[in-house]
Design goal:
Blueprint: H1 8-31, H2 39-55, E1 79-81, E2 91-92, H3 95-109, E3 116-123, E4 126-133, E5 136-142, E6 148-150, H4 153-156, E7 174-182, H5 185-197, H6 206-214, H7 219-223, E8 228-238, H8 246-255, E9 265-268, H9 270-283, E10 291-298, H10 301-307, E11 309-310, E12 313-314, E13 317-321, E14 326-338, E15 343-355, E16 358-364, H11 368-374, E17 381-387, E18 391-397, E19 422-424, E20 430-432, H12 439-450, H13 462-470, H14 485-489, H15 496-509, E21 511-512, H16 514-520, H17 528-538, H18 541-546, H19 549-552, H20 560-571, H21 573-584, E22 588-589, E23 607-611, H22 619-628, E24 632-634, E25 643-646, H23 652-659, E26 663-666, H24 667-678
Parallel strand pairs: 2-13, 21-22, 23-24, 23-25, 25-26
Antiparallel strand pairs: 1-6, 3-9, 3-10, 4-5, 4-7, 7-8, 10-13, 11-12, 14-15, 14-17, 15-16, 15-20, 17-18, 19-20
Helix pairs in contact: 1-2, 3-9, 12-13, 16-17
């Protein structure tokens, strides 16, 4: 009997049988790693199924093994909001970090015994979420920012190790599976080899290749890429239950046809975790895929729930990163970059070298003290280190390989951007004195000046500032107030209405406070609290401008270093010119009134810290209320702290205050106290 002579009922039975055979072979190949059929025989089964489905198209279903070939190209990826956020993990870089993690786990659980951990390699791939409904794959998404990812459903359907239909029937009605999509080393090498023969762009490393393959708008391209996936956790679970331990959940995944890493192990205690780390470090190079560390997870789900989360990471898991990889290359040159505060930073320009999965051609040298410590010269052979597998760094030179024409690295006397004088103070950093008009500092200086805690210019975002500078519309912060509607409206993504709104916002921001103005100038190490202290002490801009270093040290919290920065800032003629121009274009504030002698200041001499979310007032209003009552408000808890005003979701500051025995005041208590003090 051939396919063309089959009845619909016979074809339906034949299709069902073929799909069951193919799915079983996929399960044995991908999950059990125990194939029981030759590739040619598998291909014949698949071809037979395709032939019948071609004759009986009404029998084609989304979960059919033939439906992995890819669909019509997309115009763009849709967005998917994760019902349960996909959190990142905190990192451990050495055994001390691992022991600290284990100690914190045991302390939070309140147990003295050792904790059971599930350990597995940390794949260097792309985190994804798969959603199965009634056992059928209905959605695939990238991790994205943890809250929202991209819809890559059509692409994940092309990956052979991802089942379109789960095996068995005891899975939850709705199951979200999370894991890592990666490209095996062998597949990566073959992909690049094909690209070279076709004179196409090659991928830098398997992770980039996996990411590029997964983000193809044409899923037919993805289908040709050698991608694989290991599942490592569950997300949403509805209409069913999972085991009580993480490792058991993974084993259950395996029975449903989902692939898990064969290297997963359950161990007890931090010492056993460290042993597993050592074993995998030795095995790392022989693995068929790239890994960059080990993930440890508390195995008990009940204990995971008890430990909870902090910020964007769980307290019950940590990624133990492998030591950074090192390679040798040549230091070809050193250039100097200028930051927002004028810091002059030497940057190493290197002969490109492949280190830890990426090609490195630049590395920071931090400052001239670091250059001297390393004894570097241009032309040296140097060792490059990727700390935490992220930041490239020059760790040492190899003097034996130094060429005869090696050159000294010299700090420039003039700013490489604006030609202003470069000063070297007692700190390691050298700085440009160009202040508010050095173009390298201009964008960041304007962003800082416009920020919410400074001049609070509504609608003036970072990208708009960059356009202003790049188009030559703004050279100093004073130029902001000379802008008119038409030039703004002509910029990218701006129109007449937006431009009009921004000009109005600039007008509104002209009326400010002296403290905000001082903070907005961007003087080194002068934050909000220091700016307010200066204003409280002097109450007048002219008095602050003319104060000497010695006089400035009479202000609360202003020491000799900060005082020197303030005095030097106001000694620079170009800074004074910008300030004068700001006043000419209408920036103003009300004079600071002298405190009335009979105003009670019950918190005089006390140090307060605010943390958490306040509901009856903003944090700024709470801070202002405390300062009006005589308190000094700081940003961190220390032994000098008198009290902590703790709003909702107070975190580490509350914990530290409690550990130091510092008085904790709730928002309701603070409101009642204010009413009492004001009576």
């Amino acid at each position: 009997m051939t396919e063309t002579t089959l009845s619909l009922k016979e074809a339906e039975q034949e299709v069902q049988g073929l799909r069951e055979q193919i799915n079983d072979h996929n399960y044995r190949y991908y999950v059990l790693d125990d194939p029981t059929i030759a590739d040619a025989s598998y291909d014949r089964l698949m071809q037979k199924l395709k032939s019948i489905e071609a004759d009986f198209s009404e029998l084609i279903t989304p979960e059919s093994p033939t439906q992995r070939v890819g669909a019509a190209p997309l115009k763009e990826f849709g967005q998917i909001r994760h019902e349960l956020p996909m959190l990142s993990l905190d990192n451990a870089f050495n055994e001390d970090d691992l022991n600290d993690f284990d100690r914190r786990v045991r302390e939070r659980l309140g147990i003295g015994s050792q904790v059971e951990y599930a350990c597995e390699p940390k794949l260097d791939g792309i985190a994804v979420s798969l959603l199965y409904e009634n056992g059928v794959l209905v959605r695939g998404a990238t991790r994205g920012d943890g809250t929202t990812g991209e819809d890559i459903t059509m692409n994940v359907r092309t990956i052979g190790s991802i089942p379109l239909q789960l095996v068995g029937n005891d899975w939850p009605a709705r199951l979200e599976v999370r894991g890592e999509i990666f490209m095996p080393k062998e597949g990566f090498e073959k992909l690049n080899q094909r690209a070279k023969t076709r004179d196409e762009k090659v991928f830098v490393n398997p992770r980039n290749a996996a990411a590029g393959s997964l983000r193809q708008l044409d899923s037919k391209v993805t289908a040709k890429r050698p991608l694989d996936m290991y599942c490592y956790s569950a997300g949403i679970v509805e209409g069913g239950e999972l085991p009580e331990k993480h490792a058991d959940i993974l084993e259950r995944f395996k029975t449903w046809g989902l692939r898990i890493n064969p290297e997963v192990r359950v161990v007890t205690g931090a010492s056993a975790c460290a042993d597993y780390f050592s074993q995998m470090s030795e095995k790392r190079e022989s693995l068929p895929y790239e890994i960059d560390g080990i993930v440890y997870k508390v195995n008990s789900l009940a204990q995971q729930e008890q430990l909870g989360f902090v910020a964007r990471a769980p307290r019950w898991a940590i990624a133990h990163k492998f030591p950074a990889q090192e390679e040798m290359t040549v230091l070809k040159d050193v250039e100097f970059q200028v930051g927002r505060t004028g810091a002059i930073t030497p940057v190493a320009r290197l002969e490109p070298v492949f280190v830890g999965g990426v090609t490195v051609s630049n590395a920071t040298l931090h400052n001239m003290d670091e250059v001297a410590r390393l004894g570097l010269k241009i032309g040296d052979t140097v060792v490059i280190h990727r700390a935490g597998d992220v930041i490239p760094k020059v760790v040492r030179a190899i003097p034996d390989r130094r060429p005869d024409d090696a050159r000294d690295i010299e700090l420039p006397e003039r700013c490489p951007v604006c030609d202003s004088e470069v000063e070297q103070d007692d700190e390691a950093a050298a700085r440009c004195t160009g202040g508010l008009y050095c173009s390298a500092q201009r964008k960041e200086a304007i962003k800082h000046f416009a920020s919410r805690k400074a001049m609070d210019i509504d609608g003036l975002g970072d990208k708009l500032v960059e356009q202003f500078v790049e188009k030559g519309l703004v050279s100093t912060v004073a130029d902001l107030y000379k802008l008119t509607v038409d030039p703004i409206a002509s910029l990218e993504r701006m129109g007449k209405k937006s431009a009009t709104n921004l000009v109005s916002a600039l007008k509104v921001s002209q009326k400010t406070t002296l403290a905000r103005f001082i903070y907005g100038l961007g003087i080194r190490e002068v934050g909000e609290a220091t700016a307010q202290s200066l204003v409280s002490h002097y109450r007048d801009l002219e008095a602050i401008k003319s104060a000497t270093t010695e006089q400035l040290q009479e202000v609360d919290d202003v020491g000799p270093i900060v005082a020197a920065h303030i005095e030097k800032f106001f000694q620079q003629e170009h800074n004074l010119e910008v300030i004068d121009e700001l006043l000419k274009v209408g920036v103003h504030w009300e004079d600071e009134a002298e405190p009335e002698e009979d105003v009670a200041q019950p918190l005089e001499g006390e140090v307060w810290v605010l943390t958490g979310t306040l509901h009856n007032m903003t944090r700024d209003e709470g801070k202002a209320a405390l300062q009006k009552l005589g308190a000094k408000v700081t940003g961190s808890v220390s032994a000098k702290t008198t009290a902590l005003l703790a709003g909702e979701k107070a975190g580490s500051k509350l914990t530290k205050a409690q550990s130091l025995g510092i008085r904790v005041v709730t928002e309701d208590e603070f409101v009642n106290l204010m009413q009492e003090w004001q009576q």
